[in-house]
Amino acid sequence: MNMSFLQELFSNITQRDALQRTFGGRKANHTHSDLDDACQALLHSDGEAASIVLASRALDIYHSLDDDNKRAFFESLAKNFAADPRKIDDAYRAYKTDRSNRHLAELFEVSEPRRQELLRRLNLAQGATYELVRMRQDFLSLMRGHKDFDPINADFIHLFASWFNRGFLVLKRIDWTTPASILEKIIRYEAVHKIEGWDDLRRRLDSRDRRCFGFFHPAIGDEPLIFVEVALTKGIPDRIQPILANDHYDIEAAELADSAAFFGISNCQVGLRGISFGNFLIKQVVQELKQELPNLKNFVTLSPLPGFRSWLEKTYRSESGLLTPEAQETLALLDDSQWVYDDEMTNSLNEVVRPLAARYLLKEKNHENLPLNPVARFHLGNGAELHRINWMGDISAKGIEQSAGLMVNYLYVLEHIERNNEKYITNGEIACSAKVRELAKSGRKLLQGEHEK
Amino acid sequence: MNMSFLQELFSNITQRDALQRTFGGRKANHTHSDLDDACQALLHSDGEAASIVLASRALDIYHSLDDDNKRAFFESLAKNFAADPRKIDDAYRAYKTDRSNRHLAELFEVSEPRRQELLRRLNLAQGATYELVRMRQDFLSLMRGHKDFDPINADFIHLFASWFNRGFLVLKRIDWTTPASILEKIIRYEAVHKIEGWDDLRRRLDSRDRRCFGFFHPAIGDEPLIFVEVALTKGIPDRIQPILANDHYDIEAAELADSAAFFGISNCQVGLRGISFGNFLIKQVVQELKQELPNLKNFVTLSPLPGFRSWLEKTYRSESGLLTPEAQETLALLDDSQWVYDDEMTNSLNEVVRPLAARYLLKEKNHENLPLNPVARFHLGNGAELHRINWMGDISAKGIEQSAGLMVNYLYVLEHIERNNEKYITNGEIACSAKVRELAKSGRKLLQGEHEK
Amino acid sequence: MNMSFLQELFSNITQRDALQRTFGGRKANHTHSDLDDACQALLHSDGEAASIVLASRALDIYHSLDDDNKRAFFESLAKNFAADPRKIDDAYRAYKTDRSNRHLAELFEVSEPRRQELLRRLNLAQGATYELVRMRQDFLSLMRGHKDFDPINADFIHLFASWFNRGFLVLKRIDWTTPASILEKIIRYEAVHKIEGWDDLRRRLDSRDRRCFGFFHPAIGDEPLIFVEVALTKGIPDRIQPILANDHYDIEAAELADSAAFFGISNCQVGLRGISFGNFLIKQVVQELKQELPNLKNFVTLSPLPGFRSWLEKTYRSESGLLTPEAQETLALLDDSQWVYDDEMTNSLNEVVRPLAARYLLKEKNHENLPLNPVARFHLGNGAELHRINWMGDISAKGIEQSAGLMVNYLYVLEHIERNNEKYITNGEIACSAKVRELAKSGRKLLQGEHEK
Amino acid sequence: MNMSFLQELFSNITQRDALQRTFGGRKANHTHSDLDDACQALLHSDGEAASIVLASRALDIYHSLDDDNKRAFFESLAKNFAADPRKIDDAYRAYKTDRSNRHLAELFEVSEPRRQELLRRLNLAQGATYELVRMRQDFLSLMRGHKDFDPINADFIHLFASWFNRGFLVLKRIDWTTPASILEKIIRYEAVHKIEGWDDLRRRLDSRDRRCFGFFHPAIGDEPLIFVEVALTKGIPDRIQPILANDHYDIEAAELADSAAFFGISNCQVGLRGISFGNFLIKQVVQELKQELPNLKNFVTLSPLPGFRSWLEKTYRSESGLLTPEAQETLALLDDSQWVYDDEMTNSLNEVVRPLAARYLLKEKNHENLPLNPVARFHLGNGAELHRINWMGDISAKGIEQSAGLMVNYLYVLEHIERNNEKYITNGEIACSAKVRELAKSGRKLLQGEHEK
């Protein structure tokens, strides 16, 4: 279809948003009970015309509340916007007598917390979608640990999952020609490897061997939901510092690259936590890149191993007797802050740390029998395979502290994704290169009494 | 924000849609039970990667089914994709013991028909949103009267109401520079006053005194959801024929118009029946027009009165004794197909028909105590007021047959909309001009024995 | 760079154009001498502000003139807007004494016809570029044969060649999603194979095996300058009727085509005659198609042979004795309007007509020693090669009348274009397939007394 | 017309530009004589296909030259690309005999320096237009003072005036949502009040009381040609510092402003010197602003007075006896770098400097009898009027050094522009407010022996 026609379409939503609620509400001295009243009025409103006005008013009031009043409002959401028990009793009784679709529908309807209808109606106001994402962000920070946290949270998630359906997300390349108003958000939201300002941003984006893509949502406008940074390289890269410095893997032309390395995926909206976009994003970006650069052969991540260092400490260093004395001793070198600059120490550590990391990734599971490491869980769950563990992959302070300096490549092979995913889901089986498997096996000899296993 | 950035965003969704499912599936010899299996697989799939593939497959199969198999599939939706009664029993038991939000959430979750989750998952496939709208269109036509129709229909509506949330709709002006692929749909979907082809379309759109606006949805692309046609006029127009012929109300320049007359509102997607857009559309168009043409003073419809003629027949002509003999006799002139060309007859009829129409609009109510006439119900429900009843407003065959040649102006006065809406909702009170009220009153003397009332 | 930013840029120019000069001027009773005065005022104006106003006024007056007054104005252009002879004499005298760049510059300046400065100044008004193209269209039709035609025409060409510099042209794909306002121009301007209306247009454009591209100019807006229609086929097509009917060469998907056949190139603006775009257009379209569809191997035309039939008549039928009696007799079959439906006749004709066509294309030259046939001249001049002559390639009435039913494929082989072009320019050498050369050779035996050559 | 269609058009030109000549040429060891050869080949090429290739090659070679070789090339342009004297002699002889348009056309053609045809042909290459602008930038800097400078320069100007015709320029609002690639150029090109980086830029652009507009050219892409910065204010502003700090004239909403103050106009392309855009820019921006903000009443500049301080020094301080002793003494306070912080001194200076500035603006003329001050010349030439001279309008170091701290408001009153312009052109009459005229008059008493005049 005509792209330009479509493109034009979307000015409206966002234009409306942009103008809106900028000055409203904040000045007034509202309390949570004003908001309660406004919400009740909204829920009882019959006409759509009135609803929009009431929804705008309620959002304006919410906007003007301080944290205490917001907290009180969330408590009221829990208490006053649940469901009518008598209606549920009646509906269940009818359903029990005749388990028809009709009675099921009634039961479903009356057991829906009224909060959900409230949120749907609030969403009628202009720009409301983003306001509600922000409201959930407040909710997550103000109500964490509150006893009614989970069910209310579930109400948000239930609606957001519909509103942020994958079909409504829009992939957009981000580069140096992207509007500054969006780029400043990229600077702000980058979560993996901090961007130090406009010059650093330009270094990351404005190079023939870099790509960055984000997901956007029509009703949210220029707020990215998630974005990923990609380096085009010859060969699969094993270290992050040259990529960040943009001084090493540089290539003559994008066409000469054979690998696309995803080195940073950042979720931007705290209020959308639990609505997952990363999986779709990676796969769509792979498609985009394949189309632009048919020479690309490897789609791979260069990922941190957060939690590995502390796992290492907790597992092997606090408890003696698990590792061989030599391994134990070598591991202690990590305490010497100079180890990264000392060839001998790094070589020794390499012999011990990488094998243990391979074991950590392949053997350590959480309560659902999925990998303990969250990044591994994410990529393996997407159908990627564990390809390589890179020693000295990230020698920044953060990299050493969290990942003992390691970085991991997860490989996305489009033809294997489905199969990998299925095995992973069904048996928790981890797709893994022979080398990493070998490495894990070699780790055994570091363990006391495991040689025979 | 930068419009062009946003505009660009939306190529993706729709580009994906455009390429997709064009050739797939249709050739295979699938039956409804293949689709059943595919849907069960989709519901039991754990990974997102797999879900997308499974969703695409299911939609492809659906696409290839004939009507009988589709019907069988809808029956299976009713039978096999309801909810698990035992889980409901358990959840209700827990809820009854402790009516907490947690137990409510569980009850809500288990009493959600599995169809809804199925539809949500189907929506993961590319272009699925429109496919599902089309699926509901099939459903409405194939299952009407089926005993389990309503609850399944409610499941569609529940999801569509979220997906087609007002905040996601995009208003777009349609004119002669709109892509042909969209214009041909305008020709096809115009429901009020048929468009006879490209030349007629051009006459309707490509004139300085015409406007047309439609709502579009990002995930649906170039399929309009609803559109409205507007004529800019000096004074509030009372007849549709000059507007359709574009030979009468023509003005030197749009800036000289004082009135915007909405003369046709067409819903385009049968599959979205019950999801209402018209109210929002009118109000947003009023805003657009006010901004473009600050001189506009009247925002008004030129609407048909469908059902009036048959009501007239049923009420007054089949039953004698209600009208005065003179009125009864005059009414009989309607049977003479030549009456529109006869001044005497039209004058006589005018004396009788318009007052009765005023009474019809103001007094005749449906079971919810709302106006019997659906067009009146729509506009009055939006907060408009009944402004004028125009004799010989539409002398086309259809106009005479349905509306006894009358057309009605409903006036949208922005400052009164909310108040009108409230009164209408609360007491069923109809906002109405003094003249129409007068007219209705004058109708009393046509009724036998009503003079004294 | 950011495309969307650029795209937005161009609203302005054209928006301004669109609104402008729509109502102005026409009502007044102007004569050519009013226009003369306005032009003199414009030429003598010093300030830019004033110039714009004066330019607009002059164009408005021009617009309101009838043909006689326009003709008088063009005569005045010839007479009153030439150059000042005394200044030329002075400048030449100075130049003759000292042939420096400074004196050359002066001579150049004073010998520039004042018409050129006038046209440049007229071009300051909004939308003037298109107005001036239309003015030249008038000029070409009203002044043809006029004794001062050529120099004035040269003044237009001199300026248009700068304004319509290839760097300012914009290639745009035209398809069913293109605005109707542009598509109606495609219908109107198609010059090779008439388009019969919207349905026919859709058949030509809205198919996966069709492409259409046009050149546009920023200051002209939605008026195409030239466009080309392309069919994607398996193998090089030899007949136009199946393509026009869209019922033969249809392919499963564009990706399966190995050939792109250019079957119609239409210049749209008479006023731009002599400013050539076709060469650039073809080459740019080849680039676009290669990028979209890497499988394409052949870029080829399916071209008519206008003038061949009349050449045939004139050369061989009016003069007896050139052809062998048998050939002469066969050729006479062309007079039988039924020959296309008679296998025997078509077979006989094929034996005679194709070889003669090959000779016509390869041997018949114009006064510049270039091919007599204009279509051949165009494509061979672009560096294409004569690939195949197709019997019964176009059996429409027009095809038979002009081209004796033949169509010709010219092949664009990117790597040969430059070499072909050079040989053609230098020696008039025609790049040609072995088969066509063979065919031409075989034609010799149709000629009396040429068997031995 | 359909804007989005148009907008899409323009991707091509610039996309081509962007990719182009990025890596080419620079590595080779070319000299000016290689370029000479390439240019001669280009001029002698017959086919368009070949021309484009040759043009690209020539530009690549130019690109790779060092300054000495570039200088040599420009000298060769002067020497080897002039015209053929014999042809000129012949053409003149024919013209002298018969002064017809035909002979004039021939003379014009042969006296056109071949450089012009060369530049036109170079412009066939992709992205060439901008390359040629850059070439002229080199020319201006490398050849200044060279004896053949002017005529070659005139050749550039002759062509650029056609290519950068006002009708091809595109006005574009620049704000915080503009692509970063363009914003960084705004930072770089701002000539009047330096922008200190991204934060300063944001302060200047991203505020509801700021506007910035630039002219762009389709064939040049994202390089602005000129841009203007505007502050929306209540009342006509008299000081620049609060505007730059964005801390004073801030208004609640753009709609509340009554004045638009143009406080910086920056030409961006040195290579386009002599092609004037500022006049068109200001007028088009006034139109844009009037449409967006109908409440605006004043369109005014806040302009520096460059050269005033040095004029003051030269005229009055170097030559004693012109001013009264008191005035002379007061003027000497300017030497005290602390005067801006001293109320007494500033008050005294005010009494002397402003009246002298008024005289300077109204009385001091250049050799063409136009105002000596270039900024005044520009705005008055555009039809603006001298509205107010503001004491302490710019107390930056630069403001004090160049303008003695003054800033001037020039007022653009649309209805007066033409009249002002005409009077200015015809008699050099300066449109001026009564107050400034009064001020100038009051200056007389500062002059010795002028009291009686």
TrEMBL record, chains A, B, C, D:
Pfam families: MCD (PF05292), MCD_N (PF17408). Residues 81-164 form the Malonyl-CoA decarboxylase N-terminal domain. GO terms for molecular function: malonyl-CoA decarboxylase activity. Residues 167-412 form the Malonyl-CoA decarboxylase C-terminal domain. Gene3D superfamilies: Malonyl-CoA decarboxylase, catalytic domain, Malonyl-CoA decarboxylase, oligemerization domain. It comes from the Bacteria. Transmembrane segments: none annotated. GO terms for biological process: fatty acid biosynthetic process. This is MCD, Malonyl-CoA decarboxylase MCD.
